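Progress against Task 2.4 (sequence-to-structure conversion) is shown through the following example record, which the project officer requested during the mid-term review.
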Amino acid sequence: MQHWTDRDRENKLFFCQVEALETLIFLTEAAEKVGDNWIKTWLGEVNAASNPGLNRIAMKMATGTGKTVVMAMLIAWHALNKIANPKDSRFSDTFLVVTPGITIRDRLKVEGDSHQIWRVWRIRSGEHREYK
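Structure tokens generated for the chain above:
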């Protein structure tokens, strides 16, 4: 979060992007620790009822608020946490991104010539840029 909320960032994030990310990180890392077990329990029940074995969480954000950037930050956060804690089942190193068209898909490319979202929005800090 320090990297993404740095006041000296060239491309500052919208408050709603930061809040979306903070909410998802809270649900993953802190909710149970601070007594908000009902959230994780309810999400687990809903996920188990609709698609067992596939944990899904969604954020509702308006058009133009930077959902693609939030998705990229979440992927980076998950991947870096999985690298640091390989046995922690809360994190993943495998991602399936389904996009509504080639525009969003092209923004998220990691390989090849198109590193737009990763470079322009500085999703990964300097020390983590070698991870792909």
